[in-house]
Amino acid sequence: MGGKDHQPIQAPEEEWIQAVRKKLLDWYDRNQRDLPWRESKDPYRVWVSEIMLQQTRVDTVIPYYERFMSLFPTPGALAAAKEDDVIKAWEGLGYYSRARNLHTAVKEVVETYDGVVPDDPATVSRLKGVGPYTTGAILSIAYNRPIPAVDGNVFRVLSRWFALWDDVTRTSARRKFEELDRLLIPQDRPGDFNQALMELGALICTPVSPACADCPVQEECQAYRDGIQAELPVKTKSKPPVPVRMTFGWIRKGPQVLLQRRPSEGLLGRMWGLPTVETLPEELVPGGTLRDHWAGHGLKLELGPVVGELDHVFSHRRWLITLVQGLCLAEENLPADCAWVEEKELEHYALPNVYRKAVRMALDPPQSSHGFQQGRLF
DNA sequence: AACCCGTGGTA
DNA sequence: TTACCAAGGGT
User: Fold this and answer.
1) In what residue span(s) does the HhH-GPD domain sit (predicted)?
2) Is the per-residue pLDDT at A377 higher than 50?
């Protein structure tokens, strides 16, 4: 179309830029939140916080960050840790490949860069799990380098300030917003400026009903002048998660419960969980056998009653889960990806929340579950 | 470019 | 209940 959504950035007047910088930084100095990762500018601490904050709320991250930093206070400590311990510290945060990539990248920093996070954007951006945003965040906050860090907040704030109609979900938008950020970012306080943009987006320039009355740069906001705050930023709607029927097994052998490691690729890859099959619950009637579903695993299982149902939504998939009890009748050889675990030992395994919820349900079954048969057979 | 990868809060 | 979304990155 060639509408104004693809117009090149028109550089603002230098005087205007100076004024906006001062207003935003003054506001940030007075209103920034007291967050644990702001206690120092240690590049490692900044790095860990930025990885945890990817697609994750500040309030959710805080307790994880505190725990993670006391477990792994330095790059050396994290590099020396076992992967299972790192994943355990990440348990419940989601997007578990973030933890594995961070672990891999920190080991590389320890081995290749003597434990010092490189002060160079090209080198940092090559580390696993560090993309364009995180590169800019680490370099600007920890090393005072004037490099853009465009996240969802910055997309929102800048699209409103300058009334930009670019679809921010498209790759081309990132380059444009980074160029704009580059024009605005001050040489003396680049890290504070980037954080101020994000803080403004988090506290004032919110996605829904922004607090324009309290905004330090209201006078400079084109969207506010035009009354179009609610229309920006433009984002392509994401597809709803695809529903999938799943069955979890709560399989007992005496005091033990069966756990299974998930396949290395795909959703919850390599995480521990209850034995899981993608199947219709009708095939798993009480008294039936699960042997067909775990054929070749050397286990002979008999199904018990349905414990209950769970509805768990991931970013692109939705599991409609039936939790069934089972009994191990015979075991020839335990599959390599399976383990018998005492109930009290379950807490030592890193289980994604969907499995934690199922374990909770198995240990404390609902009294009524949509008319399903209930009670513990075994 | 399109799709994949978790979870919890909120309207 | 659905829909959106929160300091994104990998493939």
Assistant:
1) 52-203
2) no
A151 touches strand C (CB under 7 A): yes
pLDDT at A334: 79
CA distances from A3 to A6, A50, A194, A253 (A): 6, 35, 29, 67
A283 is an active site residue: no
Helix locations, A289-339, DSSP H:
none
Closest residue by Cα to residue A320 from A364, A360, A282, A280: A280
Map tokens 């513990």 to a residue: A376
Strand B nucleotides below 7 A of a protein CB?
1, 3-9, 11
Flag residues 89-148 of A with CB < 7 Å from strand B. Answer: 92-97
Residues in contact with A50: Cβ distance below 8 Å, sequence separation at least 6, in sequence order: A133, A134, A137, A138
Q: Are A321 and A247 in contact (CB under 8 A)?
A: yes
Cβ atoms of A304 and A286 within 8 Å: the answer is yes
Q: Are strands A272-273 and A256-261 parallel, antiparallel or unpaired?
A: antiparallel
Nucleotides of C under 7 A from a protein CB: 1, 3-10
A 301-340 residues, CB < 7 A, strand C: 311, 313, 315
Q: With bands split at pLDDT 50, 70 and 90, how would you rate the model's confidence at A12?
A: confident
**pTM metric for this prediction:** 0.93
The nucleotide closest to A97 (CA, C1' atoms): B5
Q: How far apart are CA A60 and CA A371, in angstroms?
A: 35
Q: Which amino acid is at A154?
A: V
Q: How far is CA A61 from the centre of its chain?
A: 9
